[in-house]
Each structure stands twice: as C-alpha cells, then as structure tokens.
Automatic annotation (TrEMBL):
Pfam families assigned: Beta-prop_KIB1-4
Top-rank lineage group of the source organism: Eukaryota
Organism: Linum trigynum
Domain KIB1-4 beta-propeller: 90-436
Protein name: KIB1-4 beta-propeller domain-containing protein
Length: 470
C-alpha cells in the first residue's frame, strides 16, 4: 500500500476521535430525524459521546404524528390493535416512517407525549422512546391512594377503588376501563434522564373526578394533589403545563392553578386571573416561544353527555344499574383494608356495553386563543398567532415557529382527537384531527385519515410526538 493510501486510511479511522465539542456542534445542526439517527450510529464512540452531551432533541424542530399501523389486507381499521408497528407521519413533508414497538407495549394505551417520550398506560406505566426503544418504568397504578388492589383473577372487576367522596364506597372497576383512561394527560418538568431530575404530572380519573397526581420516573408511588371544589360542583383538571419552573393546570371553570409539590398542594394563580366567559369542551395551556402563557379553548359540535367519565354520578348505594356496565357482588380480599362483602361496588365491565348508544358523532368546529397579560392578570383573546403553529392533543402542547421550520402552516392549530371519554368504548374516536386556520376559521383535513377503512375509528388514537434521541 502506498503512503498516500495509508494516510487516507488513517484519516478515515480518525473520524471516531473527533472532539466531543465538535460532535455536539454538528449534531445540533441536524434537522431531520433519520439523519440524526444515522449520525449517531456511525460508531460506538459517536453514540456514547453524544449521549453524554446535551441530548439531541427535535421538539422545536419537528412534529411527527404517530398513527396506528394500517394494512388494507386486514379487517376493520387496519392493524392498529394487532401490530406492534406504528406509522410516524412528517406532516410538514407528507412523509411516513415505520417504527416497531416492543411486544410488551402492544396492548398499552398511549396517553401523552413529552420531550420525545410516550406515556404508555398499563398496570405498570412506562415512558417509551419510539426512536431508541428506551423504557423508563413509572410507579404502578396500584400505588395511587384510591386504588386498593389489583386482582387479575376477577375478570371484569380487576381493580378495587375507594371513593372517599361517596362515604368510602368501594368500586370494582374493569381492567379495560382503568388502563384506558385512568391517566389521560401528562406533562414533565424535564427530559426523564435529566441530571436535575424529572417530575411527571398527570391528570387522572378518580371515578367521577379528574384529579392531579405526580410521580418521579423510577419512583415508587403516585401522589394525589388536593381536590378544590366549586360550590359543590364537580371540578375536572383538563390540562397541565410546566412553565417557569412550576406546573400550572387549568380546570373546567377556566381557573389557573399552581401546583406546589413540596407540600403537596394546589392554589389559584394569585392575584386571581379573571375567569373567561366562554365555555369550551377542552382547554389547553401552551407556552409560546416568547415564554408567554396561552390558553386555547376547543369547541365540539353535536356533543352529548357521555357516561364513561361519570360512572357514579347518578347512582346511589344499592342501585342495580350503572352507566353501561353492570353491578355484581365482588368477593375480594384486600391485604391493606378490611372489605365488607356487603359493600356496594359498581363494576365497569367494558365488554358488556356493546349495545350502548351514548357514543355520539362529534367534531371540532372552533378554537379560541387567549394570551395572559402578566401586568393586569387578564386573559386577552388574540385573533392571530402570526408565524407560529400550535400542536394540540394528547401531547404536551407545543408551539413552533414556521419561519424557522419550513413545511408548517403559519397561524394554524394542528390538532388530534383527545376525547378520552368517547375513546374507552372503541366504537368511535381518533378521527377528529386536522389543521385549524385562525385567519378564517376553516379546518383542513389531514390526508392520513384516508389510510383507514373505518374513518370513524382510528385506533390507537393519533398523538403528536416531538422526536428525541437520548
């Protein structure tokens, strides 16, 4: 071999010895997810070096829409329930990517995303990174104070839950219900592997109420925050955001609350933010790129009362009917509590409600956007968000600059279906997604809906993901 060729070979070998600072600088300039993956897998040294640096994150660079795998050779809505594969759609470029999920997560329900990690709801929830396959365990559902036990042998009534607001009544609740919508939205204070630590805040259904709870990745329990009622009426926390080192939540009365995890406690944003006059079906909190707090209200058409989220509101002790389920005697021994077999337990058995008619057709018709004036503590409606685009749904709400990232439409809201109460029956849901133009109120369909044979049921429901390789 000539000296010239030897020199070239030596030069090629030295690529693995690039200084970490230079590697990190190059990595930060990569926009496309697939290019970032290829960059990291060049060699073990590059992978390990970049893992030690600040993780390459694309939450401000791209938004992928995670869709169920579809195959027109299979029945129903494709292979959404039968495949470990998911489609990831790059909406800005109309490109699709296939990624495989772990077999163990095949039946888990995705109920949120943040920092590129998916929150997969099952008996032992996990954070799952779809790009790297990484998993981080979260505390089991049985560590919630109201969840007294899990009994797999009692089919259709696997979870024993106590409702202190009903005098300590015990409810035997089916696995399908609990592991479908018990936790329906999350927010995280940081990337789950962050050196400063990460706290995960969630909204969860504790029977008839939507509560706030938090945990730490790798921790041993969930902690419920206190429940603040309004004149005896039900309060549901609808959305959470981490802003300026604190968690903020909004309830169905348009009240903004601050979560103090040290106590733990919740309090109203003080001085009190004026309540909005408008009524919405869903509310979102969004942190803008200028670090301002925005509130977005979502309005649906043809909305009907759905009994899934209110199992017990119309029931008194001793009644023999419930919202689509059935009441049966439950003989369960719990090692933490003495259980009286005569206690009334309402069982939600989702396998028995096939004839239920309370699954209305629904669609989004409007979004209304407000911005918080921190000087006056007032919400002011804004008719335009300029060159920004918002991404709303089960994900942690995100804001993106369309000037910095081509392909996304300015002054628009990209939204997915997050009507959790309707999803639980798996008869309708997942289809209510599109692009809302704030300029004229029109809604543009996402072309991906045409992939599915049953357009009224896209399961599992699509969710926005901000890819992260860490």
């Amino acid at each position: 071999m000539s000296k010239e060729k030897e020199g070239k070979a030596e030069e090629r070998r030295n690529w693995s010895e690039l200084p970490p600072e230079l590697l990190n600088l190059i990595g930060r300039r990569i926009i496309k997810v697939k290019d970032a993956i290829r960059f990291r897998v060049v060699c073990k040294t590059w992978w390990e070096t970049l893992a030690e640096q600040q993780p390459l994150q694309f939450h401000q660079s791209s938004a992928l829409l995670m869709l169920p795998y579809c195959s027109h050779n299979e029945q129903g809505n494709g292979a959404g329930d039968n495949s470990c594969c998911r489609l990831f759609m790059d909406v800005a470029r109309s490109q699709y990517h296939h990624l495989d999920f772990e077999q163990a997560l095949k039946q888990a329900n995705c109920r949120g995303s943040a920092f590129g990690w998916l929150f997969m709801l099952q008996r032992i929830p996990v954070l799952f990174n779809p790009l790297t396959g990484g998993q981080i365990s979260l505390p089991p559902l049985t560590t919630f104070p109201e969840v007294l036990g899990y009994f797999p042998e009692t089919v259709g009534a696997e979870y024993l839950i106590v409702d202190h607001d009903y005098g300590g009544l015990l409810f035997a609740v089916g696995k399908k219900y609990v592991e479908s919508i018990y936790i329906d939205r999350i927010a995280m204070s940081a990337e789950p592997n962050a050196a400063e630590g990460c706290v995960l805040m969630a909204t969860c259904w504790v029977l008839s109420k939507r509560r706030l709870a938090f945990c730490r990745p790798g921790g041993d329990k969930w902690t419920l925050l206190p429940y603040l009622s309004v004149g005896g009426g039900p309060v549901h926390y609808q959305n959470i955001v981490f802003w300026r080192n604190k968690f903020y939540a909004i309830d169905n009365y348009n009240r903004i609350l601050i979560c103090d995890l040290a106590v733990p406690n919740v309090s109203f944003l003080a001085p009190k933010v004026r309540l909005l006059p408008a009524d919405f079906d869903t509310r979102y909190l969004v942190v803008g790129l200028a670090d301002e707090l925005m509130l977005v209200g979502r309005s649906l058409a043809e909305r009907e009362e759905d009994a899934v989220g209110a199992l017990n509101e119309q029931h008194d002790a001793g009644r023999e009917e419930d919202a689509g389920g059935r009441v049966i005697p439950a003989h369960i021994e719990d090692d933490r509590h003495e259980v009286d077999d005569q206690s009334v337990r309402y069982v939600w058995d989702s396998d028995t409600d096939d004839e239920c008619e309370c699954c209305p057709n629904y669609e989004t018709i409007k979004f209304t956007v407000y911005k918080l004036n921190e000087e006056t503590n007032q919400w002011g409606e804004i008719k335009s968000i300029g060159d920004y685009a918002l991404f709303l749904g089960m994900n942690t709400s995100a804001c993106l600059s369309t000037q910095d990232h081509s392909g996304y439409k300015p002054d628009c809201i990209y939204f997915t279906d997050d009507s959790f109460e309707k999803h639980v029956r798996r008869r309708r849901g997942g289809y209510d997604m599109g692009i809302y133009h704030l300029s004229d109120g029109t809604i543009e369909s996402l072309c991906c809906i045409n992939l599915y044979e049953n357009p009224s049921l896209v399961w599992p429901p699509p969710v926005w993901v901000s890819p992260a390789i860490n």
